[in-house]
């Protein structure tokens, strides 16, 4: 089966599941300039955050990363995470079950 969804057609702010109930969990995050997601974790998940448009300052533990449209960050979900939009932004986030190495 093939599912096709336009990100702009999804209802929900600041985030919405793209394919509810499916793995890996996929979320569209939309933030206004200056809006932030409070510090949180996703234990047992590996995360890919793709900035579709805008600019996001991604705080991971003690480090901060500046991401712009077209850039991708990959990181473990067991650390403290807090994205902040420095301009109106949309990101696609994939939370996959972590793979034991």
Automatic annotation (TrEMBL):
Coiled coil: none annotated. Gene3D superfamilies: Jelly Rolls. Transmembrane segments: none annotated. Residues 29-89 form the Cupin type-2 domain. This is Cupin domain-containing protein.
């Amino acid at each position: 089966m093939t599912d096709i969804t336009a990100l702009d057609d999804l209802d929900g702010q600041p985030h919405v599941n793209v394919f509810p109930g499916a793995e890996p969990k996929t979320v569209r995050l939309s933030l206004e300039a200056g809006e932030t997601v409070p510090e949180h974790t996703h234990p047992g998940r590996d995360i890919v955050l793709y900035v579709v448009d805008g600019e996001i300052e991604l705080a991971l533990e003690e480090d901060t990363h500046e991401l712009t449209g077209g850039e991708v960050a990959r990181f473990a979900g067991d650390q403290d995470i807090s994205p902040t939009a420095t301009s109106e932004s949309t990101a696609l986030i994939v939370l996959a079950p972590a793979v034991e190495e």
